[in-house]
Design brief:
Layout lengths: L2 E6 L2 E8 L8 E5 L12 H12 L3 E5 L15 H17 L6 E6 L1 H12 L3 E7 L17 E5 L9 H12 L6 E3 L1
Helix pairs in contact: 2-3
Length: 183
């Protein structure tokens, strides 16, 4: 998985990218947990999701938000990180102009950012949201949710109570033409 550096809104963005052999391969963008609590693209959950997409034939990118690792800039409370994610998606689409579909996946803070990006980018056709911080951040913007996907949350999560994620899943599942797989 080669290292990539591309220009972001606040300078360089560092990432790891796998380019699938098939020119029509789907693409997947992965977003990491909160930068101020040690979140990086090398987080084991993010890395595991990255590998899962690669094994399924996706061209896949994970990257560090601004101020993390070798990515330039400083933490911007989600607004700048959303811009970083949009820039990363643009970069990946530029390298995969014939992609058959586009997925986004995020863990914790990255799940919150990924869902916001999905609302702004109609080409995103599916998502994986691991441990979405539904008790910390407002997810009401997901009305209506534009794509079906998978939500994963641990029953013993000490930061985000499972009940708050249950409510999010219930809200999303009640929307027309949306299927949510919740584990």
């Amino acid at each position: 998985m080669p290292e990539v550096i591309f220009n972001g809104p606040e300078g360089r963005i560092e990432g790891r990218y796998h380019h699938a052999n098939d020119p029509n391969a789907p693409v997947a963008l992965l977003l990491h947990p909160h930068p101020e609590y040690g979140g990086t693209m090398n987080n084991r959950v993010v890395y595991a999701m990255y590998q899962a997409f690669v094994k399924r034939g996706f061209s896949t990118l994970r990257f560090n938000f601004r101020g993390v690792g070798r990515s330039q800039g400083k933490f911007d409370n989600g607004q700048g990180e959303l811009s970083d994610a949009a820039t990363a998606l643009d970069w990946m689409q530029g390298h995969n102009p014939n992609a058959s579909t586009c997925w986004i996946a995020g863990f914790s803070f990255g799940a919150w950012i990924s869902m916001q990006l999905m609302m702004r980018r109609p080409e995103i056709s599916g998502f994986i949201s691991a441990s979405p911080p539904a008790s910390i951040y407002d997810f009401s913007f997901l009305a209506p949710c534009p794509a079906s996907g998978l939500l994963i949350h641990g029953k013993s999560d000490e930061v985000v109570p499972v009940g708050s994620v249950d409510k999010l899943v219930e809200k999303l599942s009640s929307q027309k033409n949306i299927e949510i797989d919740y584990r």
